[in-house]
């Protein structure tokens, strides 16, 4: 128990140190954008974000289809099957589209960040960078941070579209409500508010997922076992953080009556 408490405080201290260094790096980049390695940032945006479009779209499509199927089956019992459209719209735009994107990126991109930086740490490439006067946060952490920050809103938007398509497919086939009726119900009764409430979560989720993945990579030791433990830890922590942040946003929206 004592060792666990000590490790908890050590991890908290290391997290604060990493966060402070990251904030300093972001501040310097904002003050002088020429310091940013834009080529590496766009490369990370493509590898960590855009390459995830197929899996994100496919998963969101089936999530939307499941929500539409549940709504069609349950609401038909009360003669309110027409509200299945609102159920799909609010659930996908407000919660599931963004959350599924964050969870998939937590498992896909956070682990990749940890593995890449951890492998460089094991090979002492990061030590060589520091000897040459290159800040590893400028060269390794910031490009991944910006890459995920750029791409997660795009992925969340595509996830919303795929989820709506899945819900439309089920509602059209089960209840017979066509695309025109579906779109009109969405515009009249759901609107854009839920979409923007969902998209407001994306920058926070991107910063947390990228930060966890990069921090775990910087903490890798000199053996393979350490790398495996850190990759596992980054995935678990990133998924937990994504769900926790989504819950916090839900509570905030509830208090603000949004």
Keywords, separated by commas or semicolons:
258 residues; mainly alpha; 85% helix; elongated
| Strand composition percent | under 5%
Helix content: over 70%
Shape: elongated
What Rg do the Cα atoms give? 21 Å
Report the biggest beta sheet as strand number plus sense, adding barrel if it closes. none
How far the N terminus sits from the C terminus, by CA atoms, comes to 43 Å
Please state the structural category: mainly alpha
* DSSP strand tally: 0
Could you give the order of the helices and strands?
A: HHHHHHHHHH
Low-confidence regions? none
Q: Helical segment tally?
A: 10
* Average pLDDT number: 86
Summarize the structure.
By secondary structure, the protein is an all-alpha fold.
What do these coordinates show?
It is built from ten helices and no strands. The protein has 258 residues and is mainly alpha-helical. The termini are far apart. The model has no long low-confidence stretch (mean pLDDT 86).
């Amino acid at each position: 128990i004592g060792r666990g408490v000590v490790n908890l405080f050590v991890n908290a201290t290391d997290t604060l140190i990493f966060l402070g260094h990251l904030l300093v790096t972001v501040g310097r980049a904002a003050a002088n954008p020429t310091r940013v390695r834009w080529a590496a940032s766009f490369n990370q945006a493509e590898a960590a974000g855009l390459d995830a479009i197929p899996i994100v779209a496919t998963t969101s499509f089936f999530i939307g289809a499941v929500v539409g199927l549940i709504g069609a089956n349950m609401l038909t019992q009360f003669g309110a099957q027409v509200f299945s459209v609102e159920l799909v719209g609010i659930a996908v735009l407000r919660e599931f589209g963004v959350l599924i994107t964050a969870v998939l990126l937590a498992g896909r991109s956070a682990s990749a960040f940890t593995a890449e930086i951890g492998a460089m740490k094991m090979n002492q490439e990061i030590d060589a960078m520091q000897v040459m006067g290159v800040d590893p946060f400028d060269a390794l952490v910031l490009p991944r941070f910006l890459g995920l920050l750029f791409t997660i809103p795009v992925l969340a938007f595509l996830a919303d579209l795929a989820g709506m398509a899945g819900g439309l497919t089920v509602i059209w086939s089960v209840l017979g409500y066509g695309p025109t009726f579906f779109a009109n119900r969405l515009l009249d009764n759901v609107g854009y508010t839920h979409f923007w409430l969902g998209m407001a979560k994306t920058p926070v989720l991107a910063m947390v997922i990228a930060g966890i993945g990069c921090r775990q990579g910087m903490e890798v030791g000199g053996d393979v076992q350490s790398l495996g433990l850190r990759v596992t830890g980054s995935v678990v922590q990133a998924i937990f953080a994504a769900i926790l942040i989504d819950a916090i946003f839900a509570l905030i929206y509830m208090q603000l009556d949004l």
